[in-house]
Amino acid sequence: MRNTAFLPSGLAAPRPPSAETLALRAVHRAVSELRRGTPVLIEGDGAALLVAAAETVGAQGLTEMAALSGAAPVLLLSPVRASAVLQRPVPLNAPDEGAVALRLPAGLTAPERLRAFADPTAELLLGDGQALERATLPALAAPALALAKLGRLLPALVASPAPAAAEAPGLLRVSAAEVQAYPASVATSLRRVGEARVPLEDAPETRIIAFRAADGGIEHLAMLVGEPEAVLAQGGAPLVRLHSECFTGDLLGSLRCDCGPQLKGALRRMAADGAGILLYLAQEGRGIGLVNKLRAYTLQDQGLDTLDANRALGYGADERNFLVAATMLRLLDAPRVRLLTNNPDKLAGLAACGIEVVTREQHAFAGNGVNDRYLATKAERFGHMLEE
Ligand SMILES: Nc1nc2c(ncn2[C@@H]2O[C@H](COP(=O)(O)OP(=O)(O)OP(=O)(O)O)[C@@H](O)[C@H]2O)c(=O)[nH]1
Ligand SMILES: [Zn+2]
Predict the structure, then answer these.
(1) For residue 21, which of 194, 216, 170 has the smallest C-alpha distance?
(2) Bridge partners of 275?
(3) Is 318 a catalytic residue?
């Protein structure tokens, strides 16, 4: 018999955590390990791969990897970054192959050199790229790079195949299946955790509701302006805006993007309409994180547009997951919306998650001279609908 006397009253006997909870924990922990330069073991289909993030790993991590794997490490990069490092196009074996492996000569594993391979805004040391050759792509390369992206790290990893039974004190293991399931699983695990009335300059009748996922990661917020519940109760659809966090535009008034005017404009419009829901999503930089967005800005100052800058970093054009927003809307009992957006992906993303987008409401603001090219790229390359 287990001793359950220590449990708070009203709680049933302890149940083991569900497989889903264990998987969320494993991925969240693995991401933290990569972010601090510690190797992790990714496993699946009878294979195992030791990986460490090229931008954070130091001598200690590389030594730990060498002790666990007899094989020389390879460098895993996105195809776009691999072509840049090798200074020649990289033909892919399969069209959807999302990773390229490069053999790392012994002298090229100094941490600052690994960082330079990972980061297009760091300068490559002369001739480094020529010293690299392609290597056979190890099993699990794609989920390993996906794990780095979940950690908002550059998708560039030092990797060594390892025996499936590899064990070391503190070595964290995560499965490819857990990594793959994580984005959907973390989004659907969101729960309301706190709320308060917060009168805003642009919308005095506003409540903020916070949502947290079961992995314990960063929270997302909903601003409820007026009484959207009343609109929904009468069978109507409230104005809704999916706003992805933009530290530079929202807080600092950066002129590089249109986020500040879009944020304030949405709140004002909801206040004028009498009701609305603004979801403030912790998906900075279209999901690549603030640090990578700053890197992308550097690349844009060198001539790339906002889409190619993301790709040069090894990321996709837009890494956001709109299941987060759909889950929040469901928890707010708002299955029908009038969506303020110019972005067709948001319409499709919400619809795919079962939210009915009754109408799209134009949400465009004039350029400011600095963000003109950014706005033009959104129209030309992301298909944003800027004309009425
Ligand atoms: N990666 C990257 N992200 C950027 C850049 N400029 C702005 N962002 C981010 O883009 C996001 C803004 O997206 P949203 O406000 O949802 O706008 P949108 O996808 O353009 O769609 P709508 O405004 O709804 O039409 C924020 O997370 C910004 O941080 C950039 O140059 N690169
Ligand atoms: Zn912005």
Answers:
(1) 216
(2) 226
(3) yes
Beta bridge partners of 74: 103, 159
What ipTM is given for this predicted complex? Answer: 0.97
Phi and psi for 310 in degrees, rounded to 5?
-60, -45
Options 1.20.58.1970, 3.90.870.10, 3.40.50.150, 3.40.190.10; CATH for 19-181 is 3.90.870.10
Threshold 0.90, pTM exceeds = yes
Please state, as a whole number, how many other Cβ atoms lie within 10 Å of the Cβ of residue 101: 20
Superfamily of structural domain 189-283+320-381: GTP cyclohydrolase II (3.40.50.10990)
| C-beta of 341 in contact with ligand 1 (< 6 A) | yes
d(CA 15, CA 104): 47
Q: Structure tokens of 331?
A: 């928890």
Contact 299, 84 (CB under 8 A): no
Residue range(s) occupied by CATH 3.90.870.10 in the chain = 19-181
CB atoms within 10 A of CB 67: 10
Q: Is the CB of 321 under 6 A from ligand 1?
A: no
User: Using CA atoms, how far apart are residues 238 and 270, in angstroms rounded to an integer?
Assistant: 9
Locate CATH 3.40.50.10990 in the chain: 189-283+320-381
Q: What pLDDT, in 10s, does the model give residues 311-335?
A: 999 999 999 999 999 999 999 999 9
What's the pLDDT tens digit per position in 247-302? 999 999 999 999 999 999 999 999 999 999 999 999 999 999 999 999 999 999 99
CA of 51 to the centre of ligand 1 (A): 31
Distance CA 103, CA 94 (A): 20
Question: Quick one: average pLDDT of 350-375?
Answer: 95
Window from 35-49, 86-100, 228-242, 304-318 with minimum mean pLDDT: 86-100
For residue 73, give both structure tokens.
Answer: 């490490």
Active-site residue, from 128, 250, 258, 318: 318
The answer to whether 262 is annotated as binding is yes
**Active-site residue flag, 333:** no
Provide mean pLDDT across the span 357-367.
Answer: 95
Mean pLDDT is lowest, of 96-105, 231-240, 352-361, for 96-105
Q: State the average pLDDT over residues 137-161.
A: 97
Proximal ligand: closest to the CA of 262: 1
